[in-house]
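Lab meeting prep.
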Amino acid sequence: MANDNRFRGHPPRLAGRPPRVRQAGRVPKAQNGNAAKGSGDLGQGRRQAKDLDSLLKKCLRKPDLAYEKISDKGGIRIVTRFIENLAPVCKLIEDNFEVKKKEDFTAGLGTEKFGYQGIHLDVALRSDDPQAASFGHCFLEVQLRTLSQHLWCEMAHELNYKPEFEIPKALDRRVNCLSALIETCDREFSLVNKEIMQLPDAEPLTVLAVLERQFYKISARHYDRELSVDVIRNLMPLYSKEVGWFESYFEDFYTREQMKINRMHLLYAETPNRSIFLYQPEALMIFDLLQKDPFILKDEWIHHFPERELEWLAVAWGAPLR
């Protein structure tokens, strides 16, 4: 007779999925999202509380695994664009949560193996977190990987997990060998990005990266990158300093105006009569110039963009032009 102890500790099946796990997953997803945004890399975040049936089936597949021992009843996946963003996002998670377990699968491959790459962390809320009393006992798995690594994971899972029959080892090896190409892609994407940012005409991209880091601290919205570059290129001449100066300048600007910017984003979130530039990274530059010299800004602005858009931004900032 099968050992039903594997199902020990599971909630009623009628729940569909453990409700506490589902609710708990919302807390760290929001906090992890803020961590990723704070690093300057939006990435893609997904929260998942697994269906109860799938968890019990996992117990059946793994005879030595009891339900109460499953650590990934809920999970969060953060996918970054570039491999260099994994480390800072990982550090932010470690700084904001109690990490029960950490596995760096990329480091574990050593120098001669191919296969799954990424970082997994089992996390819980810190004891001083306001919601720890409700969810402090819940553990969630956070998966960190790049877009390239995520592509390999999805395809490898599709090709390898065939329950009807066993995949020959030679085919499995070929799938794992493809991970080496993915590693090369990650490295080349990063190098190409750095070389692009060093090109003579790439200054607007450099400034956008600076503004983006502050923008993602307050918003997870996708924005029009081409429009951002166009605005920055036209407004940069209004600053007399070199591009390297922008990093600390806009960090300080956001720190000073953080409460005002956050309040404005909340206030206008559902308002139709607002500027399309409000939820763009370059809005920080526009607000700064509205404080410095709104009339010089207006003179330059009307040569490239609708005047009404600037007027709406000025009203939102509390410095109307008229």
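Slide two material, second protein:
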Amino acid sequence: MDALLPAQAAQPHAWVEKLIQDTDELRSADTEAFRAAVGATSALHRELYLLGGGMDTTLRLGEDSELAYRLAQRGAVFVPVPAARSWHLGIPTATRSPDLVRRHNTPYLANRMPLPRFRRWQAARTWRVPYVEVAVDAASAGYESVGTCVDSVLAGTLTDCTVLLLGPWSQLDDARTSPFEETHGDLRLLREHAGGDPRVHLVEELPGSSFPAAFRLELDPRRVLSRDTLERMVAAADRSRAGLVEVGADPSAARLWRTAAVERGRRVLPGVDEAEAVARVWGRATLDARRIGLWDRRALGRRDLLVLLGRPPLRPGRSASVARWSRRPRRPLGSVLRRARRLVQARLGRRGTRPARDRGSTSGLR
């Protein structure tokens, strides 16, 4: 074989070999180890192949990378075998026309693969496969609490998510009864409140796995997220390379599970408590609720909710793009200088100043 296909005449996958070399043969590649599985150069058990869903035959290019992503979410461990050899008949399309391949693959792979994150760089977008799946039990709290909880998720900076709203939705019928005496009146209000958002899915049973999404957040319906809470939790999971991220004081308030860690724990440690299995195969991290902006709905007033969930006001003469970045417009320079002048004059005794207006406080957020 070496005489027919000498190694020195081949064109290696330079970036794949560099990835393997830079990550100690993928030992430190963490969640992006699957990127090394390109072409028909991988060997795996049939059971794992079928568990991952097999090859997506609707793709014309990039199907190897997309399959590798799904295998990773099923808990696969990618092990390079340097001594193994494989040959591609002819120069690969990605080598002949890299720009055309990249242009073609970007929308297809971005829609199906939350990882790696560089393909999904656009803000305020949703995709076929979400990055994070958020599960909220709609039947365990009232309409006001659950509705606010869901609103806080949807208002967050991480829009690449879906909400699974768990409840007995099939029990809601069209019978003409008093809306104030209905057994499932709160559920009907929730369906009307959140069901119109395409990111919200009304389910009666929580799927056993968050596959193919990269994460699942189990969120207490009595909790409210700040705009960047979900993003902070995911960043903490990646920074600490944890399979499970919990809130210290009350772990049941919010638990972020990494799909790949859960699947690997189930395969490697069957019968072991899920949290313990994930901690052993991937790691576990704890966060402080206040530092990530996770609040108890019962401690928040209307003003607090307006700050957390309300739209920034559009001031006269200010464009929407400017108002989006600043909830309260900055003072004009002239106003700042006049205020500074009055303060200096007051210190010198030339004139008095009016006491500063009390803007109030938000007790729930302090």
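Talking points for slide two:
Strands lie at 132-137, 161-166, 200-203, 215-219, 223-225, 244-247, 254-258, 284-287, 294-296.
The chain has two domains: 7-119, 132-172+181-296.
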